[in-house]
Structure formats: structure tokens, C-alpha cells
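Predict the assembly for these two chains.
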Amino acid sequence: MSTNHRPDPEQLLRQLKAEEEFHRRSRLKIFLGYAGGVGKSFRMLDEARRRRERGEDVVVGAIQPKVSAEVNALLQRMPVIPARIMDEVPTMDVEAILRRHPQVCVVDGLAYDNPPGSLHPKRWQDVEHLLSSGISVISTVNLQHIEERREQVEKITGKRVKETVPESFLRNADEIEIVDAPPDFCLQRGPEPLLASGTGSATSLPQQLSELREIALLLAADVVDYQLEAYLARHGIEQLWGAHERILVAVSAYADAAEMIASGRRNADRFHGELFVAYVNRPDITPEERAVLEKNLAQARAAKARIEALDGEDPADTIMQFARAHGITQIFMANRMSNSWWDRIFGRPVEHLIRAAENIDVRVFPV
Amino acid sequence: MSESSRRGTLKIFLGYAAGVGKTYQMLDEAHKLKNEGVDTVVGYFEPHGRRDTITKAEGLEIISRRKIEYRGAVFGETDVEAILARRPQVCVIDEFAHTNVPGSKRAKRWEDVQVLLEAGINVLTTMNVQHLESLNDQVWQFTGIRVRETIPDWVVKRADEVVMVDLPPQALLNRLMRGVVYAPEKARQAMENFFKESTLVALRELAIRQTAHEVDLRQSVQDETETTGFPRGDLDSLSSPRAQASDRILILVTEDPSSAALIRRGRRVADYLKAECFAVCVQRDGSLRNVPAAQREAVEKHMIFARNLHIQLSVLQGEDVAQTLVDFARQHKVTQIFLARPQQKKWPIAFGRGLVERVVRLAHDIQVTIVAERRR
């Protein structure tokens, strides 16, 4: 990533064109928060206000039924497309928005379920409809509504949420923005009691909020990581470095790897990183060795590692190739002693690996 | 109980680049506090000529900067004494990582802030993730820039709150193009260097992960103080008793320039693992007295650096570095030894083993981590 040269005029022109394209196409921006009351709606409407001041045609398509005074003050100055009342439920009027066809539509609360008879069952599908019609959308969502994180959240709050949005919808947004605040902020301002009180969880409310906050940040980091990889791939940049830790535990048929795998799991969790376990296939292993390998792989499965069987002549080289290709930041390997004449003269696999690793940390474990 | 006996609380607004809106959000909070009747002043504020930010500071009491003359120019720094005399409940101090002009009472702004906190004044401040000491090498890898104004990790760890101020990189680049962040010429330069989209995306991810880590750290403190106790997932049952016992990390400090990166990495890993962190330096006669001046200066520089990061450091006496290191590690129940990667040319093909290989062979009962060389 050391491109320090000046862009040539042709390239600048292409960039300008891409820039124009970028602005013309409809875009989705999502404000992500970890609980009610962090200020998502306010941030979204504040952005809507600024865009209007810059001359963009912005309307409000949907807003939460109960809003704070601050949010209300912003709403007063915005054109709002009234909700349709269906079965006594206020519902975003997608047809009216399409007829009005603004540049940007504000859609609060991405996770709403629409009443039967609506154009789409889910509000996020309404948003897809608007986007495909060339209308940009700015929206909000709470962590608890992300389908894939629902169970995790439920364990903390003891409360089940019915309305969800798939995580892929978040990943494919053009932009996500985190709305972060300390838990006490939400406690003071939350418009609705998000968390079940008393039963379901032994933890205090601030503690619960703090745990939700961590999950939301890690979710955002994953989305950003996904977007970074997509960006690098689009621009043909080879990624040499990772903003997050990926640990590779190299196991074999010759030594028990239980401790290494357990440590790998613990380290991956502490760093909020990923855990890989890899081994190099050997054609000539004995049944006893096969049993050791199987035990190691069972450990790896229990630790929820991504397991890879690799083929290659030289074990150290094979592990290194895999590590480089997968952006590994730490390799764990056993310090297996051997007294073969070959190892004494040419060094052991672990020494080869240390030598070859260069920009990856190597942690050697006692056997 | 008198007010001054209580240490002030510190809140950090953490971002990943200039222009994401840290100062704006901090000033917004200052206004809210003031409206709630909290005595709030601005102790230092860096407008950078940004209109939104300047407007945002209106209506807040600003303590004038202390004028300091240096090489014929006049600089303005935080006037700690004036703030102490004014004794507000909350003081806003922008740019936590700033280095004061020579001739100031303290070298770093974060040291000024410690004085205010000790006096019981609550402080709101701003910083970018790249100013965190332990991320210095990683940031250099992302950006090609060696950030010189750094803050030791323990200072941030002691903050009561770390809040992420987020803005998607594309939006930041748009701001830059509209001239909101810098004047046009500077904006163009910035976009060619630091403000490349891929760089910004990577820094942003780093900032988000750091904030998650800070949230996690503060939770654990709560966990420990909680008397009831509750299971923290099913992971502990997976770890062997040996892996579960708290880690102790030992770093070998030498005169080699790679020591700085090694110390940072060791510190960072120790923080994440909640491990204790020590460092040693091995000398033939147990002191640096008879070491050639250039070498001694280099070692001392690394020793001071380690101490600034709150790493306990000892100088050991021993002829054989590997043996001395491993013996010390065993005596002190170290679980992980951290070593730097030797320069490529020093690697022998066979026989005559280098330090790393000798330590790996000797430490057959201790984990040894050979830290990557960060390259671009």
C-alpha cells in the first residue's frame, strides 16, 4: 500500500466521473445504535436538515410514533409525507413517496413490520423499493433488531424482539454510522423501556446496556471490515495488514494441541478476532498419529474454529502460504523437540516458520 | 467531604481523523451540561477555522490561553493555573494528544489534564485512535505516517468514558472536498496522503474496535466489583486450567530499534489478555555503565519508553542473554516471552543458533512470541 505517486490527469478525470456517479445513484445510509435513546433519530434528522440546507430535496417518509422534544423541533422544519393508516396502524406511504419522488427520503425505524395488505411485509423491503426507484434513503436501526444478533441480545435483555432486519442489509448499505453514547445517556433519555426489568437477567440495567453497546460496536467493526475488503478487492489492492486479529493454530498428528487451541480461542475472543485451525495432510501417518490428529480436530470444532486441511511438501511453507492469503496476524505452533540428524542440521519446522513469518507474530507453545 | 478529595472524571471523544466531528460533539455536550446548571468552561479549544465548530463554542465561557514565547514566536497553551483558580465543575480540553511548546510547565497536554483531574475537575477531551501509543506501528503500516504525538494506553484506560464519534469515510471526504475541514490547498494535500479512502476505512475500524475494547474493559471492572457474579459465556469451561491462570508477559529490551515496536505490541497484548507485563534488559555486568555510549543511549531510550507505558523493568546480569532471560522468566512464573524478530541477515542457515532459536529451545516450558516486523 505504498502508492505515493501523483495521480495523472486521466486518472483525476476518471475519479471525478466516479464521484459524479457516486452522487447520482441512490444511496442508503443507516444510523446504528445499541439501544433506544442513544440519539439515532436526532442524528438522522440533523443530517436531513444539513442536506436540505445544501439544496437537496429531502422529505420525511416515516418517523417513530413517540419522539423527543429535540427531534420534534427538527421535524417541524421538514416536509413530511403523512403515514397511511391501515388497520389503525400508521404505515409508511410508499406510493405517495414514489409519486413525490424526492432525492432523499428519511425512514426512521428500519425494522417495522407492515400490516397485512401493505406493498411489502417489512419496512426494510419498502426501503429497497425506494432505492431501486432512484430515491436515496437515510434510516435508523437498533442492534436488537438485527436478525443474526437477536439471540445474543435476548440473552442479555431477556426480551424477545419480533421485528428484524437481516445483517446483510446493513452490510450492503453504502454507509453506516455508529451512534455511540455512554449507557447513562440512554437511561436518562430512552423514550421506551427497552429492557425487561427484574426477571430474565441477573445484571443491572447499565451493565446490560454496556454489553449491548459492545456488541453493537463489534457488529459495526465487522460491517466496516467487510466493506474494507470489498473496497480493496474493487481497487485491486492487496491487503497486507489487518485492523483485526486473525489467529491461526497450526496442529499436527504428532502432538496434542488442546492447550494451544484453548489459548487460541481465548485470545481470539479477547481480541474480538477470528480463530483458524490448520493442519498439513501427511500421507504416511500411523493409526496412533491419526487418532491424535482427530482429537485435535475435535477440539478445534468444539472451539468453533475455522478448520482447514492443507496440502504441501514443506509444512512450514504450506502454513505460511495459507497465513498470508488469509491475513493472519498470529500463528500458534508447538515447540516439538526432535533429535533427527536432519533437524539438527537444517533446523526444525518451527524454526523455519519463525524465519518465514516476517510480518506475522509467531507464538511457540511448549509441548 | 470536600470536593477536592474526589478525582475528576475524564471523558474522551474518540475519532479516527480530523473532521469527523469530535470537537463539535464535545461542545454540544458542554452546552447541554451548562443548560442543566453544571458550571462548565472551555479550557482549550482548537477551532481550525471551521465555521460550525466556532459557532458551536458561542455562549460558552472560554479561559484564555497562556502565552508562551519560543524562538521569537508566541504560542498559546492551556492555562492550567487559571483553570484551577476558576475551579469549574467541568472543563473542556480539545486535542488530548497535543505536545506543549517547549518552556511549558508540562511536556504534554494529557499531563495538564491529569493536574485538573487530581484537583477534582471533570474533563471532556478529544483524540484520534492513531494517537494511542500501542497502535503506533499498526498506524504507520496503514498510513505511512509515524504519529509522534502519542498518549500512553494507561492514560486512556483510566478514563471513565470513551465515546466513539463516527462518520463514514465517504462523508468525511465529502466534507474535505467542500472545504469544511481544511482550506482548499491543505485539503488537496491531505487527500493525497492521509485521507485516502482505504486508509480512513482501516483507521475507522481500528477506532471502533478500540472503543469496543474500552467498553469491555469497563464492564470487566464492573464484573469484578459485582458481588453476585454471573457466568461470562461458556468459554472458560473450554480453557485448560493452565491457560486460564492469569498470563504474565516478559519483554526482552535491547538496543535494537525493533525494541520500540516489541514493547508496544507486548503492552497491547498484555492489556487485551489482562496480563501482567514486565521487561528486562540483560547486560554482562548487570549495569549499563560499561556499555558504549551509542548503545547505552539506545537501551536507555527503550527503558524509559517501557516505563512510560507502565511496564516494570529490570536490568539483569548475565553472560548468556538467552539463558539469563529464560531463568528469570521461570523464577517469575512468566507465561509468555516476547522477542523481536532479528534482522534477516543475522539468521544462520545451520549451526550457530541465533538468540530466538536459543530461547525457543531453552524455554521448553514457556510460550515464546516472536513479534512480527512491521513493514510497508
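The longest strand of chain A covers residues 136-142. Residues 1-5, 190-201 of chain A have pLDDT under 50 and may be disordered.
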